[in-house]
Design brief:
This protein is an alpha/beta fold. 39% of the residues lie in helices and 14% in strands. The protein has a seven-stranded parallel β-sheet with strand order 3-2-1-4-5-6-10, sandwiched between helices.
């Protein structure tokens, strides 16, 4: 029996994860409404613009947010709009206004409707630097203005869920990668160079992350929305539970693309957020809603490469974004 169609509202759909989520929702047959900032670049959703309902609004515009949410009357709400995750996004006021005030405005508007699920995109950076895989119940120690704002939004969502007894959850995402990711990020850079038989400049080989493919992250959002029985205000870590160092990652890339050149470690300076321990404990989400990654990191890297190789226009976009000659 087919699953019932939902009216779904998504914020942040011009971003990497949101664009993937919008496509998955359309594929599943849902009615998809996207809240889009008027001046936002829309290259990720251009191909699906005629299949979704676009609503131009900024989350700071409380009255307009109220009206749009009331008109859409969504069953599911996925809140992925954010600012500050990239090193170029440094304005503290914008970080707070977008990530915290925007979350408050959106959730308050939704409380006036009969929504079934509200899933907020949190961040592993809310934990700060840890020497272990932190549990959802541990004290957060945010390591940036962005992380502080995301932690505040998570706490607000949890408090509101408990107070209003509504299905509101937060997913603390680890290092999500895959199709439509920003071309300047690490995994797209490695794949773009790898397809050319090259390696990019690299930081220290011991830098580590827990990489999770975007398709798996999308599955976590959908499973969470559908799991009406989960505790109100639930917080779930979304990651593989496997830490991968840059050295290990580069070897996967060299093997996948047959690269013979040696990595030049330290040819790029380390960044303030780089660390040799950053790993997820996904025990709770696995036990609560049965989520787990579908494949290995090496398989996901190859899938990403196939996606990028399948479209010459996209590949050129990624290459030119890295200033690579055609």
């Amino acid at each position: 029996m087919p699953k019932p169609t939902k009216r779904v509202l998504v914020t942040g759909a011009t971003g990497f994860i949101g664009a993937n989520l919008a496509r998955r929702l359309l594929s599943d047959g849902h009615e998809v409404h996207l809240l889009v900032r008027p001046a936002e670049t829309r290259w990720r959703i251009a191909a699906i613009a005629d299949r979704v309902h676009l609503h131009e609004v900024t989350l700071e515009q409380r009255a307009l947010v109220d009206r749009v949410v009331r008109d859409v009357d969504p069953h599911w709400v996925f809140h992925l709009a954010a600012y500050g995750a990239y090193s170029s996004q440094r304005d503290v006021q914008t970080i707070v206004t977008t990530n915290f005030n925007g979350t408050v405005n959106l959730l308050e508007a939704c409380l006036a409707t009969d929504f079934e699920a509200f899933v907020n995109a949190g961040s592993s950076s809310e934990y700060g630097f840890k020497d272990h895989a932190p549990l959802e119940s541990e004290l957060t120690d945010p390591n940036s203005h962005y992380a502080v704002s995301k932690a505040a939004a998570t706490l607000y969502c949890r408090f509101t869920a408990l107070q209003a007894e509504r299905h509101v959850s937060t997913l603390r995402l680890y290092s999500v990668f895959g199709p439509w990711e920003d071309p300047t990020r690490l995994l797209p850079t490695l794949v773009v160079y790898g397809l050319r038989g090259e390696l990019p400049p690299l930081v220290s080989p011991g830098i580590a992350r827990d990489y999770v493919y975007v398709d798996d992250a999308i599955e976590a959002f959908l499973l969470t929305a559908a799991a009406s029985e989960v505790a109100r205000g639930s917080i779930f870590n979304v990651g593989t539970g496997i830490q991968t160092t840059l050295a290990q990652l580069v070897e996967m890339v060299r093997e996948a693309f047959g690269i013979t050149v040696e990595p030049q470690w330290g040819s790029m300076p380390d960044r303030a957020w780089d660390t040799d321990i950053w790993v997820c404990d996904p025990t709770l989400i696995s036990a609560s809603i049965g989520w787990k990654p579908a494949r290995s990191l090496s398989e996901d890297l190859r899938a990403f490469a196939r996606w990028l190789s399948s479209d010459d226009v996209l590949r050129r976009h990624y290459e030119t974004s890295r200033d690579l000659p055609r």
